[in-house]
Amino acid sequence: MKIRDDLEGVVYAGGVVLAAGDTIPDGVTVGDHLTAKESVSASTGKPRRRGSTSRATTDE
To answer: What does pTM read for this prediction?
Structure first.
């Protein structure tokens, strides 16, 4: 079972940090609202990650 691909942010469950597309380890329980449907065929299987755009740039 995996965390759904459209999840924004992370989930802390059972001492594990899970992000979009991550496989849920055995023994870790999360709510159904966080899991991906098993029959999603349009998914690329890759987790959606955002680049860090909030980092300020400095010219030295």
So the answer is: 0.58
Q: Is 13 domain-assigned?
A: yes
d(CA 30, CA 51): 26
Angstrom CA distances, 3 to 14, 19, 38, 52, stand at: 14, 7, 11, 21
Which two three-digit tokens encode residue 32? 């159904």
Q: What is the pLDDT of residues 5-57, one digit of tens each?
A: 999 999 999 899 999 999 999 999 999 999 988 754 445 555 555 554 555 55
Parent domain of 32: 1-37
